Fold this sequence. Notes:
There is one protein chain. By secondary structure, the protein is mostly helical. The protein has one domain. The protein is 77% helix and 0% strand. The chain has four helices and no strands. Helix 1 packs across helix 2 and helix 3 crosses helix 4. The longest helix is centred in the middle third of the chain and has 28 residues. The two termini are 20 Å apart.
Amino acid sequence: MEMEQVAKLVLATGGEDPRAALSxxxxxxxxxxxxxxxxxxxxxxxxxxxxxxxxxxxVSKQAVHRKYGRS
Length: 71
């Protein structure tokens, strides 16, 4: 997702239409999840441990491994 699309979605979350705002927030959450997965993958390729990744994400090592361990 390009920054222009992200900016449009962020603006839409503050709009008058709750349905559009919720839809935009949902898409932002999905985009953030995809981005996080890719960054975790890159960190693992770079040699980071699950504990290091977990510390940066603010979750337990078990949680990050459970979520991304198969990717």
